[in-house]
Design a protein that fits this description.
86% of the residues lie in helices and 0% in strands. The chain is mainly α. It is a multi-pass membrane protein.
Length: 310
């Protein structure tokens, strides 16, 4: 039985490590390309600012989540050092909430920037969106910081009440188990994922309606065709985020259900699926951005040629 537990833990660590490092590499690529463009141009447009924040938040989220998973499975007593578990959980929630908020900002930005409506408020947003984006990003960071502090406080109180032992594996069981004191964390995460999901749906519907109107009024000139291409590319990005947020929302609900029933294996499998989201979403964003796609394909061709020569 001990051998089975050891092999299960080793397999879990291997899978989580592969997913986390692949996602970190993808998001590090996005951040690196945008930072190089920033150095060259001395400025960033609104889309690049959002992608930069999104790449950073996802990179650090995956990094800290991997550390938590690795230590909780392999060396759980490390997390029992005073305030260690609270700090890493607060940090991972900070970056996770930042990821969700900035992802919603990206959908709204695409919708406002590309959709065309004659409403005066929408026109005002379209004109001012480049000035609004930095404030949206700042608000997302501050809100995420508040949530991270709340998570730290909730976990700190629960640990003081429930954990008086330093036995191996207790953190793993504790992190899986749902207690009434942890429902505020689940509620906050669920509310934010649902809000991001709603932003995806609302943005997709507005873009779809704008696309339909544009196609209905379209004439045969290149500018109209370019605008239609912009609609379609934005729709692909928003719909991909919509699908991923749908899966994320369902996973969150299933996690709560399985946690109350203490089904650790099912929760772990859902956790493996959720670890793929930051990397998969970032890949979709790369291939919806011509500049990022071109650089990535160039890198892949260079790597392929290098290995083929060997």
């Amino acid at each position: 039985e001990q051998a089975n537990v050891t092999s299960y833990a080793a397999m879990a660590v291997a899978i989580i490590t592969f997913e986390a490092f692949l996602g970190m590499w993808i998001n590090a690529f996005i951040v690196s390309v945008i930072c190089m463009a920033w150095v060259q141009k001395k400025t960033l447009n609104s889309n690049e600012k959002i992608l930069l924040f999104l790449g950073c938040s996802r990179f650090w989220y995956l990094c800290i989540a991997w550390v938590i998973s690795f230590l909780s499975i392999i060396y759980p007593s490390y997390l029992l050092v005073h305030h260690s578990y609270q700090l890493v959980q607060g940090a991972v929630n900070f970056f996770n909430i930042s990821n969700v908020c900035v992802s919603a900002c990206l959908c709204v930005f695409y919708c406002i920037k590309i959709a065309n409506f004659e409403n005066s408020f929408f026109i005002y947003l379209k004109v001012k969106i480049d000035r609004i984006v930095p404030w949206l990003l700042l608000g997302s960071v501050l809100f995420s910081l508040v949530v991270g502090i709340l998570v730290y406080d909730i976990i700190d109180k629960a640990l003081r009440n429930n954990l008086n032992s330093t036995c191996q594996g207790i953190i793993w069981k504790f992190s899986i188990r749902v207690d009434e004191r942890f429902f505020p964390i689940s509620f906050i995460n669920g509310f934010l994922v649902a809000t991001s999901f709603a932003a995806d749906v609302f943005s997709a519907l507005l873009l779809l309606f704008s696309l339909w109107r544009h196609k209905h009024n379209m004439q045969t000139n290149s500018m109209k065709d370019l605008r239609m291409d912009g609609h379609i590319k934005a729709m692909k990005s928003i719909l991909s985020l919509f699908v991923m947020d749908s899966i994320n929302f369902i996973s969150l609900i299933l996690t709560l259900v399985y946690s109350m029933e203490n089904k650790i294996i099912e929760i772990f499998l859902i956790h493996l699926i959720q670890c793929n989201f930051p990397g998969v979403q970032s890949i979709i964003l790369i291939f919806s951005n011509p500049k990022l796609e071109k650089i990535l394909l160039r890198i892949l061709v260079c790597v392929k040629n290098k290995f083929c020569k060997k």
